Amino acid sequence: MMETYTPTNLRKNLFEILSQVSEENKSYEITLKQPSGPNKGVIMISKERYEQLEELDFLEKTGTLDMVLERMAKEKPDDFTDSDAY
């Protein structure tokens, strides 16, 4: 489960939280109090995780992900060799 911080608590623990996000790939929710309606918070993730999500989004938008998953589902043991990978 993701830990949740208020902006005040985030400021108090900023260095520790940033270290955990970058070194341990932890994620945190930062709540932003709204006068009415749902919480409009933010999620703090590592740059590495962000780049992974951006790549996944790109693969989804271009249809590449569907093609890869389809090929993986139909893969046979002798379809690929180590020499094919490079």
UniProtKB/TrEMBL annotation:
InterPro entries in the record: YefM-like_sf
Family per similarity comment: Belongs to the phD/YefM antitoxin family.
Protein name per Swiss-Prot or TrEMBL: Type II toxin-antitoxin system Phd/YefM family antitoxin
